[in-house]
Amino acid sequence: MARTRREILLDEATTRLGTLDADRLKAANDFLAYLQERTADAETAEVMSIPGILDDIREALVDLESGKVVRFEEIRRDV
Fold first, then answer.
1. Contact at 8 Å (CB) between 3 and 12?
2. What is the helix (H) or strand (E) element at residue 2, kind and residue range?
3. pLDDT at 70
């Protein structure tokens, strides 16, 4: 089975990380955490840019608290 680009890159990164001393490994880990946070921030910004999303979330929470919900199994049958 052919390996994906992601799998190849992950193996290469793991090999490189294994050669670093503790200080450089910490720096690499801090940078990866930064990239991960930036990705999460970008995804949050994308969701928040949807018009009316906050109102929809608030409405959904009110529905949930009042028990106005539908079981997933009922929805799944209709799909």
1. no
2. none
3. 85
